[in-house]
Amino acid sequence: MRKLTIALVLTTTLIAIAAAAGALPHAGARYTGPTNSKVVNGFGNTVTFLAGARSLKRFSFGTLGCFGYGTFPVGVDPYSTSIAQLPKTVPVTAKGTFAVTSVPADWNGGDSGMKLKVSLTGTFSSASAAKGTISVSENNGNGGTCGPVKMTFVAKLGGG
Q1: Omega into 34 within 30° of 0, i.e. cis?
Q2: Mean pLDDT of the chain
Q3: Whole-number pLDDT of residue 19
Q4: Which of 138, 134, 89 shows the shortest CA–CA distance to 109?
Q5: pTM higher than 0.85, yes or no?
Q6: Which residues face 52 on adjacent strands?
Q7: Which residue in 130, 42, 51, 123 sits closest to 80, CA to CA?
Q8: Which of 20, 16, 46, 18 is nearest to 34 (CA)?
Q9: What domains does the chain contain, in order, with CATH numbers?
Q10: Residue 21: its pLDDT value, please?
C-alpha cells in the first residue's frame, strides 16, 4: 500500500508540473483560426502562422486598419486583399506564451504611405490551440495616427 501511495503522489506531482509548464506548439505545424473582427460582405477575418520549436513564423492576419477603407465591392473578401504579416519571428516562452510590442508589419492594404505597427500577446492553451490579442496602430505618413484597434483570435492546429 505504501508503494502505491508513493507512486500516486509522484504521478500527481509530475502531472501538476507538466500542466504548470504550459503547452508548446507542434513545431513545423500550421495554425489558423478566426478573429473577432467585424464580418464584412459575409466574410470573416482569419489569423494564420507556422510554429517553430520556440517561435511563431509568418504570423499574418487580415486588417482594415483603423483609418478605414470606406465601402467594399459586393462579393469581395476585404480581409483577403488587406493582409498584414509580421516580418520577424515571434518568440514563444517555455510556458507557451508569446508577445511582441509595436512591430512594423508588412501590409498590402491602404496606400503606400501607410505604416502599420502591431502588438501581439497570446498563449497556447494546448499544443493544438492558441488564443491571443492583436493590436493594430497606423501612421498615415502625414502625421496622422490612429489606434490601437484590438481583435482577439483563436487559432487551431491545421485550422478549423
Answers
A1: no
A2: 84
A3: 44
A4: 138
A5: no
A6: none
A7: 42
A8: 46
A9: 22-157 (2.40.160)
A10: 47
Dmax (CA) of the chain: 76
Which amino acid is residue 24, in one-letter code? L
53: left (phi over 0), alpha (psi -120 to 50) or beta: alpha
What pLDDT is recorded for position 127? 94
C-beta separation of 92 from 124 below 8 A: yes
Report pLDDT digits (tens) over 121-138: 999 999 999 999 999 998
Residue 53: the pLDDT is 87
Question: Cell numbers at residue 53, please?
Answer: 520549436
Q: Which positions of the chain have pLDDT values less than 70?
A: 1-22, 67-70, 110, 160
- Cα 141 from Cα 144, distance rounded (Å): 7
Locate cell 501612421: which residue? 139
In whole angstroms, give the CA distance from residue 46 to residue 32.
7
